[in-house]
Amino acid sequence: MGLDRDARPLPGRIQIAGVIDRSEADLLVSLGVNMLGFPLGLGDGREDLGVEEASDIIGSLPSSAVAVCITYLHMAEDISDLCQRLHTPWVQLHGKAEAYEVVRLRQMCPGLGIIKSLIVHPVGIGNLANEINIFEPIVDAFITDTFDPETGRSGATGKTHDWRISRKVVESTRRPVILAGGLTATNLADAIAAVRPAAVDAHTGVEGPDGRKDVGTVRPFVQRARQALARAV
Questions:
Q1: Which terminus of the chain faces fewer neighbouring Cβ atoms within 10 Å, N or C?
Q2: Chain segment 75-114, per-residue pLDDT in tens
Q3: Torsion over CA of 52, 48, 161 and 129, rounded to 10 degrees?
């Protein structure tokens, strides 16, 4: 059964991206994380784990946690194949997928929830308004993330962006918006108050020096996210 795209299926969700292995996934779930992001199909060899291992982890997740495939793939067939191999109900598109490819993906996988990334540059909302107009009818949610001009990367940069732009995104669309980009337990409350997103996402901001998520970084993030998201409703 497909998702009701006029509903807001993500309010209050807390996503932690970059799951490394099963023990990390188990830790995140035990601390109350209810969306786990698995970056795959990135095109540059940055994957932390393979498709088969990710599929095994996803298959063992409790009903309280939802798996999200985070990918830079941009062709509908490739995205569909990856998501079916993973058995994930959500995909987060960070690649340059054209609108017609997203339409084809919707036709191929009608029950798949599609999150489209909106990359915030330091120049204002600019082309984001046009992207929202194009993709709003065919996706289930948006995620705003940071462009790093030093590395050219979009996502997992560890850097924040102008939250006023993300706030404009929230005000410009009927779809739920996930806020990402340099979020930590320290800045989370301010970010949520400024943007009023439906959900939040963190990756590098909840990792220790060894690159792993641990109790000391994830627990305060989850606690403060719950409190701030509840106030933002």
A1: N
A2: 999 999 999 999 999 999 998 899 999 999 999 999 999 9
A3: -30
**What is the tens place of the pLDDT at every residue in 160-188?**
888 999 999 999 999 999 999 989 999 99
- Greatest distance between any 2 Cα atoms in the chain: 43
DSSP bridge partners of 39 = 70
SS in 3 state form for the chain? CCCCCCCCCCCCCEEEECCCCHHHHHHHHHCCCCEEEEECCCCCCCCCCCHHHHHHHHHCCCCCCEEEEEECCCCHHHHHHHHHHHCCCEEEECCCCCHHHHHHHHHHCCCCEEEEEEEECCCCCCCHHHHHHHHCCCCCEEEEEEEECCCCEECCCCCCCCHHHHHHHHHHCCCCEEECCCCCCCCHHHHHHHHCCCEEEECHHHECCCCCECHHHHHHHHHHHHHHHHHHC
- The string of pLDDT tens digits covering residues 54-73 is 999 999 999 999 999 999 99
Beta bridge partners of 213: 207
Closest by CA to 166, choosing from 205, 123, 199, 120, is 120
Q: What is the pTM of this model?
A: 0.91
